[in-house]
Amino acid sequence: MGKAAVSVHKPTLLIACGALAREVTQLIRANNWTSFELACLPADLHNKPQLIPDLMRRKIQAAKRGGKYARILVLYGDCGTGGLLDAVLEDEQVERIAGPHCYEFYATPTVFDDLVGQELGSFYLTDYLVRFFDRLIIQGLGIDRHPQLKDIYFGNYKRIVYLAQTEDAALAELAKAAATRLQLDYVYQQTGFGDLAGFLQSRVQDSPPWQA
Questions:
Q1: 0.90 surpassed by pTM
Q2: Is residue 1, in this structure, part of any structural domain at all?
Q3: For residues 107 and 115, is the Cβ–Cβ distance under 8 A?
Q4: Which of 33, 50, 96, 129 could form a Cys-Cys staple with 74, CB 3.0–4.6 A?
Q5: CB 208 within 8 A of CB 11
Q6: Residue 22, burial from CB neighbour count under 10 angstroms (0-12, 13-18, 19+)
Q7: pLDDT tens digits, residue range 71-122?
Q8: Which domain covers residue 157, as residue numbers?
Q9: Do 94 and 12 share a structural domain?
Q10: Hey, CA dihedral for 180, 185, 188, 194, is it positive or negative?
Q11: Cβ-proximal residues to 212 (8 Å cutoff; 6+ apart), any chain
Q12: Does 2 fall in a domain?
């Protein structure tokens, strides 16, 4: 007699921006979402968005070749790619979380729209960007070497808005110091994980089975 087919689950691969790795890992562990595996593209692509689409295509195609995953989900906004990331994902038939950037899906669209309405000239920081502000912003944009670039990059901004995923007083102080350094007003907005948590929760519930 042949073996009966048993319904099991291949894992779902999450391809995320490295700036989301800590938060995604926290959500996976806290909720015991064992069907997810996480892979990341480098967070410093934040400053080189033109490289994201091609690197994403390579990552997706490499994952597909192995046959290990039931599906692939992408945790990225458009992130300054001008629609090119979405074109890649459409070609590869891969879904991503909705939104133009992580600021919106952390804050949720309604809250983010309110923040934009309050002040269009807002520069947004997440927990990750606060932790690595010097490396990604000051050094990444060359402001440490060429201080005059501060006014070129930030001359039209009025304030820094810290979208906080955690309640961490030390991070809040670092964010405030970043605002002072850039000579901008400071606003604190607690967001938690926003729509990121709901997106992952909903995709756990409809995870596709396969037969073994």
A1: no
A2: no
A3: yes
A4: 96
A5: no
A6: middle
A7: 999 999 999 999 999 999 999 999 999 999 999 999 999 999 999 999 999 9
A8: 109-190
A9: yes
A10: negative
A11: 5, 6, 7, 8
A12: no
